[in-house]
TrEMBL record:
The active site is at residues 147, 161. One of its GO terms (cellular component) is plasma membrane. The keyword Hydrolase applies. Pfam families: Peptidase_A8. One of its GO terms (biological process) is proteolysis. It comes from Mycolicibacterium vulneris. This protein specifically catalyzes the removal of signal peptides from prolipoproteins. Residues 188-207 have a biased composition (Basic and acidic residues). This is Lipoprotein signal peptidase. The keyword Lyase does not apply. It catalyses: Release of signal peptides from bacterial membrane prolipoproteins. Hydrolyzes -Xaa-Yaa-Zaa-|-(S,diacylglyceryl)Cys-, in which Xaa is hydrophobic (preferably Leu), and Yaa (Ala or Ser) and Zaa (Gly or Ala) have small, neutral side chains. The chain crosses the membrane at residues 34-53, 87-107, 114-131, 151-177. It is a multi-pass membrane protein. GO terms for molecular function: aspartic-type endopeptidase activity.
Amino acid sequence: MTSAEEAGEAAPVERDAEPETAASPQPAPRRIRLLLSIAAIVLALDVVTKVLAVKLLPPGQPVPIIGDTVTWTLVRNSGAAFSMATGYTWVLTLIATGVVVGIFWMGRRLVSPWWAVGLGMILGGAMGNLVDRFFRAPGPLRGHVVDFLSVGWWPVFNVADPSVVGGAILLVVLSIFGFDFDSVGRRHADGDSPGRRTAGDRHKDEGDSQDSAGE
């Protein structure tokens, strides 16, 4: 067989492979950029609003926004989101640090854009409160978080708190409905759906393409 005939037979294989490549999920770095962008927005809003709250609000004195239902109320919180688990500041700091590390680890295999949104919300909120834990009084790992917004009977909170909770709810909903962080498409009860592709599949396809090119 001549070289021209070999090239003619190889061409259809390459054309057949093109649709599969086009259908493959976008690279993880793009999802990481989405995750980090959302985290940066949440972190910036959280830090700026806390600085303004400390500068402008009298400690512990409600400033009405909508009557007595919604008020600005500056407090220092040693606990978790919405003033939960007070008295365990250093434990909460270590947990939040572990969450941040875990999100960055998951980011290496991240494919789903909605998971990127949810993880970005959690990451931004966790880092916002970690800034207070490390840099506010009474000291590193024990710093009290600045909360400033009060709504009805709900505990006083900041921008980071609803971001963390909202991101966590989004991830739970995605998991319930069969959307995994490392795949595109919905997971069926009997396994992967025909159109569902994971990050591992994408890497395998890339390796097969390289092997074919080498042959």
